[in-house]
Amino acid sequence: MSLNKFGRSDILWLKAVLIIMAMTSLINGCIEPVTPEYDYEDGLVFIEGFANTIPGASFISINESVTEFGIRGLSFITGATVSVVNMDTGAMVDFEESEDTYLSPSDFMVAPGDRWKLSVTLPDGRTYESEPEVVLNPVPIKEVEINYIKELEYRESLDKFISGHKIAVSFDDPAGAENNYYWSYRTFENLDYCIRCQNAIFRNGACTPYDLSNRELRYFDYICETDCWKIRYPEEVNIFDDTFSNGKVVSKLEVGTLPLYSKENMVVEIQQFALTPAAYQYYKILKDITDNASGFNAPPPAALIGNLFNVNDPDEFVLGRFTAAASSLANVFVERANIEEAPLESLQPSTISTEPTLASPYPPPPTQLAPCEESRYRTAIEPVGWQ
């Protein structure tokens, strides 16, 4: 259960910062067998896009590296014109800005055999495109196992092991062809409270600033007026190639972890993508960067070359990639009421603060409900498999 208006994984930020730090070291000179020095550079554009066969699930993220108040990070670029183009039919589909992402129409999806490219024009006129991407045929998932692990992984920031689940899949790898796989997932957890307004009250569809200095808890929580589900995404890159399993049964392959953020029941939607060799090589290097256990002092990985370019400036280095891929799906309901370990996100009843409905001192009308706003991280549409 979460009180944040918008929930999201920080994996995109982490990936981009690591990529930028690694790539600036590679751009500035040849690799020497010495400890590298990473020079963070502002103004680098990072574009990550994924078009897939799930209706409405395609997205494009556009960010720029920035340093604000001495802190290095990413800034979402608003006001861009974003579209994907079918190279065979000429059909163009526009994406709309939503929070920190550009989303496809709810009915948009790609199909095996399609060829798509991405086109992005920034507010300052810079235009970026991708090389065409061919959508391959998906490989069906045969079976999914989701197992609870009390000590899932060690979190250095918390100085302890955290609990959670591991996802494992089984499938038949097609014989006679090179097959490359990428796994992603979405988890859906039911929300009770949709919005927390800090030093504000919820009026006319938004948190309106209001002086709450006379209260111990200087915020109000608002109950979701309809059923609502929080959506989470992976925090790691999960890939696999069939070099040693071509034409065989792949059984109980671990493809993801689910940290115990809450003990709400959830639906896990596992997506198994079929990648082109070029896309696989990109995600392999990305995995090497984000999973490098040796930290920043490890030797730099190979250059992370995506398929994006500046139409008017071929010398500009553009980080990221546009991928179009078909996926097979599996939805699993996970009951978590009997888990004893504490979740990472805890919500105590004593921290809930709702507006009074009687003799309210706040501007009318007294409000306790808020809408479930559709986004990449939240939905009022019941997920498949929900119980």
UniProtKB/TrEMBL annotation:
Q: Which Pfam families match?
A: DUF4249
Q: Where is this region: Disordered?
A: 348-371
User: What InterPro entries does the database record attribute to this sequence?
Assistant: DUF4249
What protein name does the entry list? DUF4249 domain-containing protein
Gene source species: Maribacter cobaltidurans
What lineage is on file?
Answer: Bacteria, Pseudomonadati, Bacteroidota, Flavobacteriia, Flavobacteriales
